[in-house]
Structure formats: structure tokens, C-alpha cells
């Protein structure tokens, strides 16, 4: 029976993937002939990001990444489109090109490319086209390239051995390691591995190089810390002063990096003549300097609570003459993401999550100011502002649209779409618009959920449902397109998808976000269960007797927790879920666990025991719910041994369960063919128990 169900699911998958779209004869017929999205559709979509407007405001450069399933990699190139609209043009064809950045005169675009020896280097090319000019040739590669305002130099970062004086030393050191038959690693302090890589003794340093090429100059020689520290999707970590004489950057110089979130801002002369100067001393995290065009200020964002990586990011101003710091968003209860000065230095634009959306705001660059929404609707992520201050460009996405490039006047008027690179494919697909609903969660707090109906929806039918639980736990389901967990693909077989933002979610104020800490299986669990009850009561087309649940990272933890606390689900899917709180001590970012559980396991064993799913396997009786467990062997954030422990417990208690482990993936499944297997296994598991 089980094999037959899986076979039927695979056959259905193949049938949907092979559907042809016939020519419509009417609008109604066109709607009826739209088909459900498949993995093949998802993996073939162009992924647009990083819009950058030219100094004259006429062109927008952006990056496009398109997965190549057969080659099992993504192809990345730079495109441009007119700011007034029109047909986009592909500018580069290197296949590994990213981070377009305009030269100050607008005649060139710098970018990163690994087109030679698979090592990323800085290149630039003329807007008119032609061959790309290679700027750097370091054996250690380059990242975060940035033009100086005078156009004479380019700053970048590269991971080098701190005691090496030149690249020849780095080459020699790497060659010796490669030739040695002994591959053992020896460490004497923590953070010896991070995310998917073991520490190799290198540190990311800040360099400058002539725009015409030549020998780069290390501005942080000998530094035994990273410039910048590792960060997931934060604003630009380095900046040039308007006169090109100075650079500002973020670094964490604390000895115990695995326990510290203490990033500070430093300045250094671009000439390399003179030492570093620390300009912030906040014990929390200071990140992302942006100089005002008049040179008076440096804007940055700061977290005030040391050790709490999910503390609200405030927008700060540093006076370059006075040294005074001002908090511009102390009374703004959302976390600031990216930001940019208007050309007159009087206004700062920024974006921030607001419930399940991400608007763009503006605020006066003066203490006591209040932000106002400029661009609303959906999620408006990467953005840039023109040199004349008249135009905003941004990447907009929603649950029915992968990111595309949009523009608007700087007051938010005249929002217009400039690219349609996925439009032809999307026109074939029956994608359900999300519906937001609110309900009363734990302690009578209002909580938001998102409902996505299946394709070809019929309100008279009853549909099985899938409850999705996001990671973080300080994260959120938003009105944004996803590739790793795409709600439309998950709804496609005929499921109602419920994406609930329980306690801990971002975008609902810092108190709501903070209430997850030291309460992992408490209010958040109650929010989720009450949200599911509320959805079943509100939407009569949900079949409450056929519900599955799935989640990754903290969402995987919650699946493990659900497995020991309720039998209401027909099946569960846990991806990279922390199962045993104590053995999660093998993680690398120790500040996270120690904040979330109130200290070390030996200092606060009560919380570790209270919120560890492993503690309840025996206490509440044996597991009952069929569970799929997924993980990656390169996951150092949530070591895959957590998945093995959970799967072993399921098997020992005789519960139908399956283990899917990727030896070449980390916390996320990124390779196209691995992603294909992930989705097929995921949907087959649901089909077996929900259909």
C-alpha cells in the first residue's frame, strides 16, 4: 500500500510536469487551462537581485541567477534595463557573475566573477559591452568589491593567512596543505568551523587596488579577525568616505567569537598610511556603515543587546566631527534592514519587515524623527536610489511572483515594473493569491497566518492541509517568493497550505519576537495549534482530519516537539531540526544557544531539559506519527547528528519513518538536483499519508 501510494504520487508529479498549455479561447478558458506549478517550473525561473541604478539615472544593472538542473549548478550573469522600461539586455556571459556596481562616472560596471580557475575576482566592463577587464588576480579571490567615489580605486575583501605579507605566501601555504597526506585539523579555540566550512586559518582582510589593476594593498595586515564578520544578508559591510580618503568597516575583535555578537565600526585611511580607529563601542552589534554625501555622518544599524542575534536593528547616526551617536529609530518597533542616504544628506531611506510585508520607509536624518512608508505592498527587498534623488529602484517579490525589478519616484508615487523575466512562465500557472487571517493565540495575543489555496480550487470540496513552520526561530513567513520552501509547489498537489507566524516571528514588534527565547515549546507551540484550529473553523474547505506539518531549522525543532506532544497530524516532516538541546552544543555559534536557553547546559540544565524534544520520547509515550527526517552532513549550524538521533528514536519505537541525508549540503539544500530529490521526497511523503 505504501509503495503504491508513493508510485501514484510520482506518476502524478510526472503527469503535471508534462502538461501542455493550449491556446486560450476566452479569459475563463484561459484561467481553467492554467496548470499547477511543478518543480521543473520552479527550478527554471530566473532569480533577479541587487538592482543598482547608474549615476545618470538612465540604467539599472542587476544580477540574474538561473539554475541549470542538468549541470547541477546555477548560471549567474549581469543584466541591464532602462530606467524608463523596455527590453532588458544581458551584459555578461561569464556564468559566475554577480554584484554589479557602477563606476562613479557611470561608464563602467564592476562585478565579481569566478570565470577563471573557479576563483572569484573583481572585473569591470564598459556599458557598451566588450571584453571584461580583470582587476584582481589573488589566489585567495575577492568579494564585496566597491568603487571609490573618485573612481580611481576599488576596495574588496579577501580571506588570507594573517601572517602572510603577500599572495606568494598564501600560495605557498595552500600548496603545502594540498601536498600533505595528513589532513588532520588542530584547534585551540572555538568557532573552529562555521556553517559549512572548517576554519583553515585564513581571515578576511580589507584591500584596495587601482581600478586599472596592479598589486592590491592590505589595509588590515596581520589582523586575526574577519573584515567583515560572517553575516546573512546584511547591508554592505564596508564604505568609502565621499572624498575617497577613508574607509569604514565592521569587525568583531573579541577573542571568543563563538560567544560574541559584538561587531564595531572602524575607520582606516585608504592610503594605508595610518592605523585603524574604532568609532563605536556598543557591546551589541554595529554593522553596515554608509557615509552621507556631505561627509558629515555615517549611518549604520545597531543591536543593543549583546549575545542576542535577533535583537531589533536600530538605525544610527555617527557624527564624524563630534563622535556623537544618535538613535533615529528608538521608537520604531521594527528591525531596520538596508538603508541609503538621499543626495542632500537630509533623508535616509530604509526597509523593514512589517507583519508579512517589507515596505520602504523614509526618515529625516535627525534625532526625534519619525519614519513614514514610501513604498508599500509585498516584499521590497534590495533597493537603490538615483544620484539626483528622484528615483528608487528595488526588487519586489510576492507569494505569486519571483523577484522582479521595479522603480518608483522617491516619494513613492508612480510605482512601475521594469522587468518581466518570468512572466511567460507565470502566465501558464495557476498560483493562488495569499489570504492573511488573524486569530487569538497564547495569552490572547493576536497572531497572523497565511492561507494558500490549491490550484483549480473548488470551495465545495474538502482539501487536506499542510501546516508550515518557519525557522529562526526569529524569522517569518512573508509575502515573498521562496525557492527552498515554495508554498505554491507545496499546494500544487491539492493541499491548503497554512503558514503561521507564531511567537518569535519578526515583523510584529520586538516583544513578540523576544517571547520565543527560553520558551521554545511554549507560547509558539500554542500559537501554532490555535492557528490551525482557527483556520479549520474559518475555512470549511479544510479537512481537519487530514493535516500534515513540516518545518526546517527551528521549524524542524517544532516538528520534533509536535511528535512528542500531539497525535493530531497524519504525518510530519522535520528538516535540520534541533532534537537534543544538550548535544546541540556541537553547534558553532554558541551565543545563539546560550541566549535562547539562558546559559550553558551545566549552568541552566532546567531549561535545556524542559525544551528538549528528546526528553519527552519516553515521558509522553512512544512516537506515533509517521515522520520524514531530512538533514545535510555539512550542516554545522544544526549538526546532522540531531537528525540521526531523532530518526533512531523513531525507528526504535517502530514508527513509520524515513531518513534523507545529503552528504554535500549544509543547513539548506542548494544544488538543483538535490533540490529536485528534496521536493519529490517531501511531496511523496505527504501523498502517502494525506491523500
Which properties best describe this structure?
691 residues, alpha+beta, Neuraminidase, Rossmann fold, eight-stranded mixed sheet, four-stranded antiparallel sheet
Show the helix and strand layout.
Layout: H1 2-17, H2 27-33, H3 39-44, E1 47-53, E2 59-68, E3 73-82, E4 89-90, E5 98-102, E6 108-113, E7 121-126, E8 133-134, E9 143-147, E10 153-160, H4 167-179, E11 193-194, E12 197-198, E13 203-210, E14 217-218, E15 238-240, E16 246-251, E17 264-269, E18 277-278, E19 285-291, E20 297-303, E21 314-319, E22 325-327, E23 336-341, E24 347-352, E25 360-364, E26 372-375, E27 379-385, E28 391-398, E29 401-409, E30 416-417, H5 423-426, E31 435-440, E32 446-452, E33 463-469, H6 487-491, E34 496-501, H7 510-514, H8 523-538, E35 542-552, H9 554-565, E36 571-575, H10 590-596, H11 605-610, H12 616-619, E37 627-632, H13 641-652, E38 657-662, H14 672-690
Parallel strand pairs: 33-34, 33-35, 35-36, 36-37, 37-38
Antiparallel strand pairs: 1-2, 2-3, 3-4, 5-6, 6-7, 7-8, 9-10, 10-13, 11-12, 13-14, 15-16, 16-17, 17-18, 19-20, 20-21, 21-22, 23-24, 24-25, 25-26, 27-28, 28-29, 29-30, 31-32, 32-34
Helix pairs in contact: 1-14
Description:
With 691 residues, the chain is of the alpha+beta class. Among the domains are: 2-40; 45-134 and 406-429, Neuraminidase, CATH 2.120.10; 432-690, Alpha/Beta hydrolase fold, catalytic domain (Rossmann fold). The protein is 19% helix and 31% strand. It has 14 helices and 38 strands. A hairpin with a 5-residue loop joins strand 21 and strand 22.
